């Protein structure tokens, strides 16, 4: 802080901006001060001497913290006013992101209207734009999907926001990281199109959950769903103490009413796991096997198979088996997915066995032809 006073007194504006950047990216400093007050005292008085993009960046970092709505409104108005005549297109676009973020958190406009503006911005801001700009855009889109309860969109935009924040060098507060991580885990449980759970379990966001004694159970439940372990899922949901964890937490309350959807996702993962454990032509299963695995009646197997196909995670067909005298479910293909380290290890072992078989065959042929 003393350096800022010194640089301002000597009108060393470049050094002043460099010191501001250092302070804004220092998490310990940000925890000790009120970022909004700091902005008003250290940025606003010298706003004409600070690059417009830097001004917008400081404002963006400030809104990552909790700001009272009334103060937030006047703050955004001041920032947007200072940027209104800037020739820096990136700064102007970042200013628009700040306004849209305020409208989202304040419910100042219908979500449909905000969505249209975000869509327009996403067409203007390309992936080659500065990471800071993409970070602000993805932050707004993430909040938008959360407001709309679009679980698929929320998870995808969250991962993009995280990546751009790292590229932009923006240090995120632990409280914000944990909040997003909880919402990310919840979205994975309820998403109908996102099936790559393994990458999240190894992501820094998941690490913040594992470090929290109040939310670590979410990772266990995600692992149960990913493994397709319907028995463990039913046992966990059948425990009243576990349900209380959902019902007593506003952020997780929706999960208490979505048990059927979560169980269905677990069953589809179970179906996938059943097939992947088998090789070649043996990747098929009877209705009775699937019913037993998923804890459902035989007549419900057809509906589960259809939903598995709709999910896109696997492509299966029902065929008549003359040998068995019954319908069987056959795996045609699985969707491309990101494998966990454990799954990669299992795959490597299969390739090692295949390599051994090929080597044996080559040696046998060499012996036959006398090479």
Automatic annotation (TrEMBL):
Domain of life of the native organism: Eukaryota
Keyword annotations from UniProtKB, A to Z: Proteasome
Keyword Transferase: no
Pfam families for the chain: PSD13_N
Gene Ontology cellular component list: proteasome complex
Key word ATP-binding present: no
Residue span(s) of domain PSD13 N-terminal: 2-222
Listed name of the protein: 26S Proteasome non-ATPase regulatory subunit 13 like protein
Naturally occurring in which organism (per UniProt): Aduncisulcus paluster
Lineage: Eukaryota, Metamonada, Carpediemonas-like organisms, Aduncisulcus
């Amino acid at each position: 802080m003393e350096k800022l006073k010194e640089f301002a007194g000597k009108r060393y504006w470049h050094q002043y901006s460099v010191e501001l950047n250092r302070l804004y990216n220092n998490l310990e400093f940000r925890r000790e001060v009120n970022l909004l007050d700091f902005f008003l005292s250290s940025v606003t008085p010298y706003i004409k001497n600070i690059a417009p993009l830097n001004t917008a960046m400081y404002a963006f970092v400030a809104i990552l913290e909790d700001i009272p709505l009334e103060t937030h409104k006047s703050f955004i108005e001041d920032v947007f006013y200072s940027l209104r005549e800037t020739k820096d297109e990136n700064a102007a676009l970042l200013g628009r992101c700040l306004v849209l973020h305020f409208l989202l958190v304040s419910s100042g406009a219908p979500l449909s209207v905000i969505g249209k503006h975000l869509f327009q911005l996403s067409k203007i801001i390309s992936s080659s734009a500065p990471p800071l700009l993409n970070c602000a855009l993805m932050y707004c889109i993430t909040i938008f999907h959360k407001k709309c309860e679009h679980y698929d969109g929320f998870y995808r935009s969250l991962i993009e926001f995280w990546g751009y924040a790292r590229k932009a060098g923006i240090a995120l507060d632990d409280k914000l990281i944990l909040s997003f991580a909880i919402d990310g885990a919840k979205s994975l449980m309820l998403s109908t199109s996102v099936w790559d759970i393994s990458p999240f379990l190894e992501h820094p966001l998941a690490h913040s959950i594992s470090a929290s004694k109040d939310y670590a159970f979410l990772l266990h439940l995600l692992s149960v769903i990913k493994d397709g372990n319907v028995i463990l899922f039913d046992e966990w949901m059948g425990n009243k103490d576990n349900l209380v964890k959902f019902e007593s937490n506003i952020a997780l309350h929706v999960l208490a009413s979505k048990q059927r959807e979560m169980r269905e996702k677990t069953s589809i993962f179970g179906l996938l796991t059943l097939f992947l454990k088998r090789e070649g032509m043996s990747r098929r299963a009877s209705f009775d096997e699937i019913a037993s695995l998923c804890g459902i009646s035989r007549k419900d197997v057809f509906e589960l198979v259809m939903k598995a196909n709709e999910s896109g995670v696997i492509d299966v067909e029902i065929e008549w088996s003359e040998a068995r005298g019954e319908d069987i479910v056959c795996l045609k293909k699985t969707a491309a997915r990101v494998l966990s380290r454990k799954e990669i290890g299992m795959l490597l072992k299969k390739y090692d066995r295949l390599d051994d078989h090929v080597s044996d065959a080559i040696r046998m042929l060499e012996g036959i032809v006398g090479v």
